[in-house]
Amino acid sequence: MRNLKKWYTYKRDGIVYVQFKDRITGKKLTAKSTGTRNVLLADEIIREWYYDVDSFFNRGQREKAKNELEEIITASILNGQDIKDVFTKVMSSFFAGASSEDSMMFIENGSQFFIAREQKQTETPKKASKHSEIQEVMDMLDTLTFKDYLFLFWDYEKSPYIKQLKNSKSEVPYKELFNRILKSINHYSYLLDDVLLKDVTKENADNFLKEIKALGKLKDSSIIQIKSPLVQALRFAHKNGIIDTLITGDMLTSFSAKNDEKEIFTEQELQTIFDKKKNYFENEAFLLINKLLFLTGGRIGEVMALHINDLKQNLKGYYLSFDKNYNFEGKYLKCTKTKRKDVCPISNELAEELLEFIKTNPYKNKNGFIFYSEKRTEPLNYDVINHNFHKTMEKLGIKRKRLTLHSYRHTFTSLLQDAGFSDADLLFLTRHDDINQLRRYGGHITPKKEEKKRQAMDIINSYI
């Protein structure tokens, strides 16, 4: 019975988690977050992990199988000929009726052979799609190029992916995201081969990314923003039977965003920036926005979405309600990035500063934005805030390449980590869903972390 179900899924705080079963024992393994609330996208991710030979799951299973096989052979009374006979028998059963392509696959990559074989046995044979959005693509396969498919997939109004989500009554992504991705792909589309979608290979996709890299205009972190949508579109096509070849991110060139990580502020820099005697931002709104970003660890969209009635008071003091995010591209309010509603306590001093600033609001509307603009329905523009931030940092001599408004959030996390807050605490405080993303935030080197090296040396030295 254990072969019938390969994995189990469940939701935690709305995020889909998967528990794979060990390929040999059938026992459930440690749960893994897919990082998404979208059930359809989560299913694509899970299948990629299960059937991609180089995924974290299959790499772990391969090492485990090798270790167990070694233990069995070591502990057995089998001699070399016995082991050879068993291996020959197993291979004979696998290759009974196998095609020359399958034989070659085993020679070049044994792991890929077994996983591909399992996939053929367990997945339903592809038939003509009953869903109109998929059939529309299938009907164009004889002339549809890979390039035109990408344009189609990321065109919000025409996308088969969006149509599928709507038909299944699933939550759909924001239009601005699709527009941004489509613009990026279109900008570099002249580098794409004219290969038909049905004939596309991993080399076609990889060459596109390598060509972009060769231009020398984009950082790795920016190329990742093109690679991910590329893979998503291909994964969708494979899952829905449009193409036969599974092309995953692990099969393509890796690009690292490590060198593009945000920097953090030093304690001395924070004292300079928020000097109690002088407002270096030269504007009360800009000062308060920067203060809130640091003191709450909030995202810029969450801070700019704050309405006057989000500043509240109870018996324990003042707090801010973080339950929405402002989309600067579409100019509308949406839910927070992780769809969580939260409250953040603030000091009486900061609350009083905000209350004084609110008095300057000309619209006298409790439902209005705290950081109002000349347009009643919009908060201050992000570009204006960002320009003021960089201008102020340059004036203070704190200008660094990767120091941004988001650095306040990284600094917030790093300082609390130094103060002894656990990952679970910080996951809650920063309104994160992904522990790996949080660890990136907390991975900055601070003076206290450097001091840990000396403490470690002293402890180890004490043993000899």
UniProtKB/TrEMBL annotation:
It holds the Pfam family Phage_integrase. Belongs to the 'phage' integrase family. PROSITE patterns: TYR_RECOMBINASE. Keywords: DNA recombination, DNA-binding. This is Tyr recombinase domain-containing protein. One of its GO terms (molecular function) is DNA binding. InterPro entries: DNA_brk_join_enz (IPR011010), Integrase-like_cat_sf (IPR013762), Integrase_catalytic (IPR002104), Integrase_recombinase_N (IPR010998), Tyrosine_recombinase_XerCD (IPR050090). It comes from the Bacteria. It comes from Treponema denticola SP33. Coiled coil: none annotated. Residues 260-458 form the Tyr recombinase domain. GO terms for biological process: DNA integration; DNA recombination. SUPFAM superfamilies: DNA breaking-rejoining enzymes. CDD domains: DNA_BRE_C.
